[in-house]
C-alpha cells in the first residue's frame, strides 16, 4: 500500500469519528493487523462493513482498501484457493474502474489474483500468472511500493512453471534493481529466491540466500518467523543437516493455525521422519489428513494432492499400508481437479508400489479375538491406525468389529471409507430397517462427516418413521438448516423418538429465536435431562422470560432461588461477561449476576457499543476458564461467561471525560459523588497515560473514561454535576462531546483539549 492510501485512511477515520462511527473509525486502521495477526473473525466482520460504508460515502479508494485487506486475510495465511478466485477477479475489475485506476495500490489487486491462482494450482496457473504479472511489471519501476510484491509472485510463478534457473536469475536482477533504486528487497522476495535455488538443486546457495533475507523487512512481519523456520528446516533437511533442521522446524502447535506453510512443513517433517528427533505418529497422520480436508474445502487442489502424497509416505514409515493406499486413491482423485498433473501419476504409482511391498505390523492375536483385544486395549496408548488394519478382516461381516473399525476410520479422517463398509453391511443387505439405533447413528455420523447427504437421505427413506426423521434432523442440524431440523425433530418426537430428538429440536428452535419452544421441549422430560441439558433449558427459558421454567430448572440442579415468582433479580456475585466489540473482537465487562443465567452490566461502555451499564444480559453458564487450583487465586477469581443476548436494555447513556489526573483526595470525592448518584463510572486509561502541561509542556498524569447515566437523567444534569464536582481541581477536566451535544461552553472544552493535548 502506498503512503497516499494511508493518508486517505487517516482522513476517513476522522470523518467516521465526527459522524459518530467511532467503532468503524478505530477498526479502519486495524484491518492490516487483523489480516496479519490472524484475527479473522474481526476481519470478516469489519472489512465488509467498512467497504459498505466507503461505498455509501463514495470513497472508492477506501472501498478498495477494505476489500483488498479482507481478501488478503483469506488468501494469505489462510491460503484459500478456488473459493476466492471470483472475489480476486472482482477486486481486480473494481481496481480498473475509472475512479479507482489511479490509486497507487491498484497493482496489489494483480498480486492478489496471482496469489489465489497459486493457492489453487500453482503449476496449473503458472502461465496465467506470468502473463498477468508480466504485463504490470513492464510499467512498474523499483521505486514503486508494488514492485517487490509483484516480483515475488513472478518468481514463484517461474518456479511453478518448472523454470527454477530462470526464477533465480530474475530474483537476483530484481534485488539489484531495488538496491540501485535505494530500496531494499522484502523478506518474501528473498525467501522466494531461496525456494528457487532449492528447486534448482542448489540447496547450499538456498540456505545462504535465506540467511541473507533474514535482515530484510517482511511485508507480513507477523508470519516471518515461522515461515522462515519452515523454509530453513526444509533446506537443511535437503542438505542432510538433520539436527539443525529439527532445531529450525517450528512446532506443530505453532504452524497449526497457518495453512500457508502446511505443505512445506509436512515436506520437511517427511525428510526428518527417519531421525530420532522427529516422531512419526498416528497423531501426525491425523493432523495432515485434516489439513487435506481443509484444502479440499478451500479449493487448494494442488496442496491437497501434495499433502496426500507426503502423508502416504509418512504412513508407509509407520507401516500404515491401508492408509497409504487410501491416500494414493485420494491423490489420484485430487489430481483430476488440477489443470496440470505433471508427474503426479508416476508419484502415485510409486506410493502404491511401496505400499504393496511394505510389511504390515504384526497383529496382537487371532482374528476371532480382535474385538475383545480392541476393547481391552489401553485407550490412551493404543494406536488407532494399527487397529484399523487389524480389524479390517472382520469389518463388514461382524457387526461388533464393523462398529469399532468404521468409527475408528472416521476418527482418523476417513469417514467415506467407513461409510462404504457400513453401507454394504446394513443397506445393501436390506437389514437397515431393523438395524440397532446405535448402528444407524454411527452410519449417520460417518455419512455426515463424509458430506454424502444424498446417500444419507436414501438411507433414511428405508428406516421406520421415528428413526427416519431423527436421521434427517441430524443431517439438517449438521448443515445448519434450522427450520428443517425443527420439522424433522417434531416428527421424530411424535413418532416416539427419545431425548436426542428433543435436543435437536431445542437447539434448532433456539437458533430460530423460538426460545420458549426450545425450553418447553426439554421441560416436558425434565426428569430425563442431564445437568447440561438443564442448563441449556435455563438459558433458553431466561431468554423467553419464562421464569417458572427457570425456577424448575434451578431446583433440578440444586440452585436456590429466593423469590417464588416473577423475574429473578438477586445479587449472586461478580462475573465477567464476554461480549462482542464493534471491531469484531471481544470485550470483558464486569457484571453483577442476578440469576442462574442473567447478569447486569456494571461498567459504562463507550458510545457506539450495542450495550451499556444497566443492561440485563442472558449468558451461557458454562465457565470459559477453569477455577484456579490455588486458594488465594480463587479469592480474586471473577468467573467469565459468554453473553448470549441482551434481555432488557437499561437505557443508560455514556459520556466521555478526559484530562489531567487530580489529587487522590479530589478523585476520591469525585468517585463518591458518582456512586451516590448511582452513575456507573470507569477509568479506561492506565498509569502510562499522560497529558501535556499547557505552560511548561511537561507531561502530567492523565485520566480518561466514561460515566453512564440512567434514562431519566438529562445531558444538562450530567454537565452541571461534572462542572460542580471538578471546579476546584488544579487542572480542568474536559467532556467535549457532551458540551457539543448541549451547546454549553464548547469553546472552553475545545481549549482544554487543545492546551492539554488530549
Structural class based on helices, strands and sheet pairing = alpha+beta
The backbone outline, from C-alpha atoms, is globular
Spans where pLDDT lies below 50 across 5 or more residues? none
What is the alpha-carbon Rg in Å?
31 Å
Mean pLDDT: 92
Protein name: Tetratricopeptide repeat protein
Organism: Nonomuraea monospora
Question: Can you offer a commentary on this structure?
Answer:
By secondary structure, the chain is α+β, with helices and mostly antiparallel strands. Helices cover 58% and strands 8% of the residues. It is built from 37 helices and 10 strands. The strands form 2 sheets. The protein has a 5-stranded mixed beta barrel with strand order 1-2-3-4-5. Strands 6, 7, 8, 9 and 10 form a 5-stranded antiparallel sheet that branches. A hairpin with a 5-residue loop joins strand 1 and strand 2 (586-593). Helix 7 packs parallel to helix 9, helix 10 runs antiparallel to helix 11 and helix 24 packs antiparallel against helix 25 (437-449). The longest helix is centred in the N-terminal third of the chain and has 18 residues, at 221-238. The mean pLDDT is 92. This is Tetratricopeptide repeat protein.
Question: What tags apply to this protein structure?
Answer:
758 residues, alpha+beta, five-stranded mixed β-barrel, five-stranded antiparallel sheet, 37 helices, 58% helix, 8% strand, globular
Amino acid at each position: 500500500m502506498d503512503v497516499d492510501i494511508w493518508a486517505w485512511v487517516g482522513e476517513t477515520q476522522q470523518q467516521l469519528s465526527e459522524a459518530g462511527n467511532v467503532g468503524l473509525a478505530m477498526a479502519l486502521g486495524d484491518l492490516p493487523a487483523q489480516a496479519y495477526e490472524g484475527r479473522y473473525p474481526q476481519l470478516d466482520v469489519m472489512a465488509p462493513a467498512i467497504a459498505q460504508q466507503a461505498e455509501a460515502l463514495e470513497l472508492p479508494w477506501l472501498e478498495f482498501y477494505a476489500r483488498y485487506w479482507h481478501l488478503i486475510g483469506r488468501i494469505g495465511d489462510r491460503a484459500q484457493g478456488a473459493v476466492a478466485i471470483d472475489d480476486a477477479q472482482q477486486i481486480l475489475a473494481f481496481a480498473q474502474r475509472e475512479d479507482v485506476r489511479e490509486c497507487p495500490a491498484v497493482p496489489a489487486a494483480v498480486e492478489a489474483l496471482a496469489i489465489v491462482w497459486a493457492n489453487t494450482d500453482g503449476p496449473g496457473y503458472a502461465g496465467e500468472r506470468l502473463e498477468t504479472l508480466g504485463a504490470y511489471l513492464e510499467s512498474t519501476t523499483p521505486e514503486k511500493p508494488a514492485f517487490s510484491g509483484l516480483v515475488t509472485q513472478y518468481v514463484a510463478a517461474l518456479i511453478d512453471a518448472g523454470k527454477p534457473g530462470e526464477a533465480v536469475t530474475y530474483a537476483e536482477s530484481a534485488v539489484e534493481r531495488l538496491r540501485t533504486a535505494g530500496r531494499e528487497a522484502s523478506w518474501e522476495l528473498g525467501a522466494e529466491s531461496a525456494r528457487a535455488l532449492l528447486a534448482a538443486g542448489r540447496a547450499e546457495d538456498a540456505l545462504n540466500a535465506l540467511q541473507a533475507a533474514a535482515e530484510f523487512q517482511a511485508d507480513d512481519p507477523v508470519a516471518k518467523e515461522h515461515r522462515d523456520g519452515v523454509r530453513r528446516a526444509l533446506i537443511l533437511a535437503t542438505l542432510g543437516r538433520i539436527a539443525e533442521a529439527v532445531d529450525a522446524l517450528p512446532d506443530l502447535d505453532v504452524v497449526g493455525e497457518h495453512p500457508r506453510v502446511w505443505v512445506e512443513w509436512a515436506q520437511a517433517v517427511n525428510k526428518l521422519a527417519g531421525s530420532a528427533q522427529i516422531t512419526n505418529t498416528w497423531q501426525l497422520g491425523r493432523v495432515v489428513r485434516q489439513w487435506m480436508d481443509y484444502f479440499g474445502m478451500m479449493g487448494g487442489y494442488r496442496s491437497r494432492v501434495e499433502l496426500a502424497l507426503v502423508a502416504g509416505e509418512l504412513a508407509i514409515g509407520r507401516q500404515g499400508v491401508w492408509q497409504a493406499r487410501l491416500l494414493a486413491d485420494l491423490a489420484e482423485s485430487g489430481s483430476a481437479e488440477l489443470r496440470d498433473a505433471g508427474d503426479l501419476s508416476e508419484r502415485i504409482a510409486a506410493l502404491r508400489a511401496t505400499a504393496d511391498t511394505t510389511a504390515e505390523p504384526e497383529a496382537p492375536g487371532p482374528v476371532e479375538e480382535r474385538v475383545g483385544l480392541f476393547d481391552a486395549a489401553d485407550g490412551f496408548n493404543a494406536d488407532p491406525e494399527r487397529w484399523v488394519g487389524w480389524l479390517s478382516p472382520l469389518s463388514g461381516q461382524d457387526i461388533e468389529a464393523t462398529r469399532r473399525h468404521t468409527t475408528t476410520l472416521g476418527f482418523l479422517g476417513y469417514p467415506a471409507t467407513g461409510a462404504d463398509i457400513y453401507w454394504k453391511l446394513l443397506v445393501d443387505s436390506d437389514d437397515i430397517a431393523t438395524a440397532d439405533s446405535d448402528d444407524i447413528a454411527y452410519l449417520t455420523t460417518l455419512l455426515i462427516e463424509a458430506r454424502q447427504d444424498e446417500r444419507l437421505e436414501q438411507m433414511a427413506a428405508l428406516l421406520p418413521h421415528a428413526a427416519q426423521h431423527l436421521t434427517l434432523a441430524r443431517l439438517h442440524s449438521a448443515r445448519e438448516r434450522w427450520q428443517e431440523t425443527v420439522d424433522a425433530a417434531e416428527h421424530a418426537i411424535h413418532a416416539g423418538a427419545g431425548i436426542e430428538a428433543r435436543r435437536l429440536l431445542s437447539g434448532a428452535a433456539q437458533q430460530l429465536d423460538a426460545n420458549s419452544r426450545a425450553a418447553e421441549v426439554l421441560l416436558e422430560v425434565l426428569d430425563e435431562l442431564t445437568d447440561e441439558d438443564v442448563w441449556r433449558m435455563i438459558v433458553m427459558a431466561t431468554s423467553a422470560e419464562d421464569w417458572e421454567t427457570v425456577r424448575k430448572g434451578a431446583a433440578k440442579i440444586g440452585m436456590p432461588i429466593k423469590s417464588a415468582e416473577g423475574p429473578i433479580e438477586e445479587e449472586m456475585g461478580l462475573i465477567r461477561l464476554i461480549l462482542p466489540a464493534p471491531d469484531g473482537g471481544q470485550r470483558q465487562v464486569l457484571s453483577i449476576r442476578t440469576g442462574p443465567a442473567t447478569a447486569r452490566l456494571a461498567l459504562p461502555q463507550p458510545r457506539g457499543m450495542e450495550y451499556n451499564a444497566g443492561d440485563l444480559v442472558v449468558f451461557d453458564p458454562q465457565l470459559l476458564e477453569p477455577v484456579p487450583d490455588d486458594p488465594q487465586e480463587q479469592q480474586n477469581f471473577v468467573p467469565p461467561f459468554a453473553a448470549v443476548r441482551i434481555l432488557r436494555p437499561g437505557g443508560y447513556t455514556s459520556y466521555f471525560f478526559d484530562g489531567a489526573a487530580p489529587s487522590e483526595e479530589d478523585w476520591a470525592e469525585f468517585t463518591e459523588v458518582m456512586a451516590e448518584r448511582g452513575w456507573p463510572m470507569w477509568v479506561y486509561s492506565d498509569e502510562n497515560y499522560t497529558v501535556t502541561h499547557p505552560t511548561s509542556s511537561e507531561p502530567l498524569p492523565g485520566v480518561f473514561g466514561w460515566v453512564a447515566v440512567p434514562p431519566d437523567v438529562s445531558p444538562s444534569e450530567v454537565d452541571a454535576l461534572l462542572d460542580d464536582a471538578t471546579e476546584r481541581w488544579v487542572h480542568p477536566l474536559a467532556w467535549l462531546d457532551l458540551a457539543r451535544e448541549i451547546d454549553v461552553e464548547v469553546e472552553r472544552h475545545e481549549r482544554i483539549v487543545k492546551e492539554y493535548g488530549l
